[in-house]
Structures are given as C-alpha cells and as structure tokens.
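Tokens as discussed.
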C-alpha cells in the first residue's frame, strides 16, 4: 500500500444528524490523501440520511452514502458498507462510530501502522498504555467494559487488550481472508467475531491507544438483545470451532 491508497471510513448511522457533519469535518481536516467517508444509514427517522446526502452533494469525491431500508443491526450495516468499500477498490477500510466517541485524529497513525507493519488490523484501544475510557463513565460502566474484555479473552484467547472495540483499521486483504460477508453476528459482538476470525487465520492484530469519548448528542443503541447476543457469541464461536 502506497501513499495514494484508497482509504474508506465506514460509518453506520441511525439518528445521528447532529454528529455526522461534525465527523465529516474532522475527517476532512486530516487532509489524508485517498480518505473517503461512506455513510451507511439505516433509514433514520431524524433525517440523518438526508444530511448525509447533502454532505455527499457538497463533497462527492470524499463522501458517499449507502441507504438501507431497515435497521437490522450494527453488524449488518458494517457488512453492507465494508462490502461496498471492497467492491469499489478500497485498500484500507476503517470502522468508526458516528457518535464522536472515536478520535479521528488517530486515523493517520492507524493507517501508518498498516502500511509499515505486518498487522492485518489495527484497533483503536482504550486499554493499552496511553489509552483511556471516557471520564464521564461511572465505576459500574468501567467495570462492565473491563469484565466484557476479560470474558471474551478468557473464552477465545484473543490476546487483545480491547477485544470489544469498534474503532478499527483493516487491510482490505484481511477482510477478504476472514470472509467478512459471512460474519453472522448482528450487534456489538460483531467486533468480537471479526477479531476471532482474524486470530484463527494467523493474522496479527495491533493496538494503538485512544481516548474514548462519551457521546454528546443522540442516544446509545445498546439494547438488552444486543447485550445478550454479545454474551453468547464467544461460546457459539468456541463450540463451532470444536
């Protein structure tokens, strides 16, 4: 991958009309050659899709929109976006939330790590040295996050500090090797299944520190159903392997 690699930031959205223009500006300010944002909107009732269309109209070379007709899970939205990015020749695909919790300023570091090392994916990690979670998090949320990472690693032996992280930069070849279109998870456990397939393929996962921020607008989409799937998925992966 050279300096002119095509880099696609896949951003799933549902009711993010306030945050999306801010994120688009942060990505534009990076001045990173080849960087594009692909918004995958799940028919947001607040008009996020229309906001995305306006951004694409103003900057057609750096912003694209994929409209989906239903909201059927974060994993499905990511697969749709990643598949389109790969079909259109992306060399690097970045997973990033629209809620401004992931620092856009770290993207150049993640891209450089992919270009200069043998890592197949780079995780923006809260739990390596120099990383941190949002200061607004209470002790119970910090404990839940730490427990989730311990739980996943204890079952699947991923040896990843932030196994549940959603901010990632992938080499396109890695996504093809793990056959991303066949990922089954439909919620936040999508991240764990992606990591598991990467490790099973013998590919290296690298981590770089980030400060994870609490969202300032909109609402979290973590439902009980998503939490239940996240708890069960490591066991499903392990038993399927067996």
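Sequence:
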């Amino acid at each position: 991958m050279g300096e002119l690699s095509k880099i696609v930031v896949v951003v799933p959205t549902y009711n993010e009309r306030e945050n999306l223009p801010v994120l688009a500006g942060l990505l534009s300010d990076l001045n990173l050659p080849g960087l594009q944002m692909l918004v995958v909107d799940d028919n947001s009732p607040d008009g996020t899709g229309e906001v995305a269309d306006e951004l694409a109209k103003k900057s057609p070379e750096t912003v694209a929109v994929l409209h989906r007709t239903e909201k059927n899970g974060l994993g499905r939205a990511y697969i749709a976006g990643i598949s389109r990015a790969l079909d259109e020749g992306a060399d690097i695909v970045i997973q990033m939330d629209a809620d401004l919790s992931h620092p856009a300023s770290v993207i150049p570091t993640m891209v450089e790590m992919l270009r200069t090392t043998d890592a197949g994916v780079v995780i923006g990690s809260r739990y390596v040295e120099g990383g941190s979670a949002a200061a607004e998090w209470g002790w119970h949320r910090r404990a839940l996050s730490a427990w989730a990472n311990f739980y996943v690693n204890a079952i699947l032996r991923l040896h990843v500090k932030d196994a549940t992280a959603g901010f990632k930069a992938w080499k396109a070849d890695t996504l093809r090797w793990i056959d991303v279109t066949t990922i089954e998870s439909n919620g936040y456990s999508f991240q764990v299944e992606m990591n598991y397939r990467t490790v099973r393929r013998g590919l290296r996962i690298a981590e770089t520190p980030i400060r994870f921020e609490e969202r300032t607008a909109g609402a979290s989409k973590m439902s009980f159903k998503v939490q239940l799937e996240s708890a069960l998925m490591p066991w499903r992966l392990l038993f399927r392997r067996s």
